[in-house]
Amino acid sequence: MIKRQYNDGKDHVHVLSYGGGTQSTALLLMALKGEINGVIPDYIIFSDTGWEPKHVYNWIEKINKHIKANYGREIIFCDNGNIRDDIVEGSETGNRFASIPFFTKDKNGEIGIARRQCTNEYKILPVNRKIRSLLGYKPRQRIKEVVHLWKGISTDEIQRVKPSRESWQVAEHPLVDIAFVDRSRCITYVEREGLGTPAKSSCIGCPFHDFNAWREMKLKDQESWQDAVEIDRLIRKLPRFKNNAFLHKSGRPLEEVDFNEDQLDIDHFLNECEGMCGI
Prior knowledge:
- By secondary structure, the protein is of the alpha/beta class.
- 35% of the residues lie in helices and 11% in strands.
- A 5-stranded parallel β-sheet has the order 3-2-1-6-7. A 3-stranded antiparallel β-sheet has the order 5-4-8, with no helix packed on it.
- Helix 1 (22-32) links the parallel strand 1 (12-17) and strand 2.
- Pfam families: PAPS_reduct.
- Residues 15-70 form the Phosphoadenosine phosphosulphate reductase domain.
C-alpha cells in the first residue's frame, strides 16, 4: 500500500519503474503532482533494452526535461546490455542470449513460441540491481528497507497485476488501486499536461506486436521496420533453436506478411512493454 507513513518501524522506499510509454508516463506525472496519496517517488528508473524506436527515446528525453524543469527530478537510467546486439552475436556465434518469444515453425508447419527471458534480464534484473546500488547495497546483501515498486498498469490491463517475486519488494499498481484509470484516460491526462500524445513503448522487434503495430511501423517508421526485417532474417536458423525462428506469429518472413489482412488476435494491451513487460 502506498501511503505517507508506515507504523512498522521499517524504512520504506518508493521507486517508480518508468517504461517510457503511455501508462507509465501518466503515472509519473500524477506522482510528481502528489496525486498518488500524496507520495512522491524517491527514485524514477528506466531500464533501457537498447532496442526501442527513436520516437520512444525522443519521448523519454522530452519527459525527462519536463520533470527536471518543473519538479526538479530526473529519470535514472540503467541497462543490462543491448538486446539487439546480443541477438546478433548469438545468431552469429551460437553464444547464449536471453531468449525473446520468437515464433518457431517445425517441418510440419506447426507454430510454437520460445521462452520469454528478455523481460527478466533486460528489465527486471537491471532495475533491481540499480535499486540495490542506490540504497548502498552490494550484490547478495540483505536489503533492510521495504521497497515499493510502482508499475504503470492501468485498469484495462488488470490481468497484469501480480505480486513481486522479491521478498524485499512490494509491487504497487497505483493506476489500478488509487487513480483507477484506463489507457485512454492516461493518454488524455498526458495530453492535458501539454506534452502531446504519449509514445507506445516496446522493442522494435517484439514478437508480441499486433497487426496494427507492425502495419504502423511499416508505414510510418521505415528505419525501425527495416531493422525488424533484418533481425527477422537473421534469426531464421538460430544455432540454439531446433526449428526456424520468426518475429511474426504466422511463421512467415516479416517482409512477406500481408498487413492488409485481419490478424488482430493478439491483444497488444496485454503484451505492451511498460517497464516490466507485463510481469
